[in-house]
Amino acid sequence: MSNVIKLDMLINNSSVRSSDYLKVYDPGRLSELVGEVAVGTARHADEAVVAAHAAFQSWRNAPVSERIERLMAAADAVEHISDQLSTTLVREQGMLLRETQRDVNNGIKSLREVAELAKGFLTPEQFEDDDSLVRVEKVPRGVVAAIVPWNAPMGLTMGKVGPALVTGNTVVVKPSSFAPLAVSQALKVMSTFFPPGAINVVYGETDVATTLTHHPQVRQISFTGGTTTGRAVMAAAAQSIKNLNLELGGNDPAIILDDADPALVAPELIKGIFPRSGQVCYAIKRVYVPTAMMPAFFESLCAVADRYQVGYGLDPRSTFAPMNNRGQYDFVRGLIERSRKAGATVSELGAKLEPGEWDNGLYVLPTIIKDLSPTDELVISEQFGPVVPLVAYDSEEQALNMANNTEYGLASSIWTSDPDRGLRMSGRIEAGVTFINSHARTALGERHMPFGGVKQSGIGRVRTSVGLAEYIEYHAVSLNKTSCRAAV
Fold first, then answer.
1. Kind and range of the H or E element at 191?
2. Residues 262, 274: Cα–Cα separation, whole Å
3. Is 0.70 surpassed by the pTM of this model?
4. Domain limits of the chain?
5. 413 - beta bridge partners?
6. Of 43, 186, 245, 417, whose CA is between 20 and 30 Å from 136?
7. From CA 122, how far away is CA 119, in angstroms rounded?
8. pLDDT tens digits for range 19-63
9. Is the separation of the CB atoms in 252 and 431 below 8 Å?
10. CATH 3.40.605.10, applies to 5-248+454-475
């Protein structure tokens, strides 16, 4: 683990150095330097956009079949280095190896899915009668600025880059400073399959983001991250009326109905609470439980969570990994301690695999908290970490009101032994996605569920043809057959 990865920016298919390099450390071994990435400036961001805009002039005219062929070849190349990417991702991001493998595989799968979808989706529609012809074309927009987070960088980045490229756009990607390495290595490999400038990667913080969101040649911003930052992105985009796709924060509720069996629900529910140590935008972040069921439900949930083995992401014994960054770690630890001081019942669970390494990593035990009010800080916040509140309710109406009483509306779930009851209730949940008796997509859902939020959880959708449509404009063409026809 002594090899340090050093990455420059990628602009117009050339490596671009910087006078400043960001050091990336392992969240599970804070003393270990994993890599260094070139920190870009506003000038670098501008150069990347200009290169992408120049590439767009020819790439937009590439046949759809060529775009699909190149994207599929790029996906194959990323798959060839998937083991390396997964290991690097553990070391820079902190997640379990099986979780980073899933993220890498999800990214590859996303590229292949949009390539398949594009075959039929981009075919123009045509309508004709004796007097006229109408054709509706789906055309690319231009340069897409993709600003991606650290928690699932491969899946989320490829979920932006794939649709953008296959529809004829070009991209400038700004990775997160908390997980820039693996995704940048993948993008560099992919760039060799496309014209120079089609894929660009620029690292940096405020000045780079500001340049991308204000640049007149950027025609679309695809952003995944917090709601506060999303507001700033939206305000910046308004200056030049850019198209937006925003996947923002979530405070996703799970409602346990009174006919649910705690012993059956708990093992499945826990999978929706603590994936990637709770650092998932649509993870369950608050659980509403009937008052009469609370003791049994709390006991069942704690029993399942207590089986976790908390340790380093590359340790095969680990079933629970550290958090990603110091800021989020401090925030979550603060939520737990403030809840404890307020009189809530706090259960920190699981076992420490290497207690001697805990001061050298951002480790937090999975924590379940009850005896909270619906308005306590932990309940109304997006904690984005391994702590979850259980809130008691006395009626179904009360549970719905509490679940909906938030600015967020990303995902949600209902748990019941009566599927029809769950389906009826789902229509009253204010969210982009509602799961019933799970909190994850099924194989059928992978193919047919668009994903995105309502209210302040975002604008637009990803996945399926609905997500592909986020990257095109509709161009309507009308031909009048009679008005210019020469007289006989």
1. helix 181-191
2. 17
3. yes
4. 5-248+454-475, 252-448
5. 254, 435
6. 245
7. 6
8. 999 999 999 999 999 999 999 999 999 999 999 999 999 999 999
9. yes
10. yes
Tokens of 237: 């985009």
CATH number of 252-448: 3.40.309.10
HSE-up (13 A, CA, CB side) for residue 239: 14
Tokens of 158: 């490829």
CB-based contacts of 454, cutoff 8 Å, min separation 6 = 409, 430, 431, 432
Task: Dump pLDDT digits (tens) for 207-260.
Answer: 999 999 999 999 999 999 999 999 999 999 999 999 999 999 999 999 999 999
Parallel, antiparallel, or unpaired: how do β-strands 199-201 and 351-352 relate? Answer: unpaired
344, pLDDT greater than 60: yes
What is the distance between the alpha carbons of residues 251 and 412, in angstroms, rounded to a whole number?
Answer: 9
pLDDT of residue 444: 84
Active site residues: 247
Residue type, 211: T
Find the mean pLDDT for residues 174-182: 97
**Per-residue confidence (pLDDT) for residue 486, from 0 to 100:** 59
**H or E segment and range at residue 403:** helix 396-404
Six token digits for residue 468: 């592909």
CA-nearest of 226, 90, 104 to 155 is 104
Angle (deg, nearest 10), helices 97-121 and 153-166: 10
Which SS3 state, helix, strand or coil, does residue 488 take?
coil
Six token digits for residue 189: 């490999």
Q: Which tokens go with 224?
A: 């995944």
**Token duo for residue 211:** 């340049």
From residue 231, give the alpha-carbon distance in Å to each of 81, 246, 261, 315: 36, 10, 41, 39
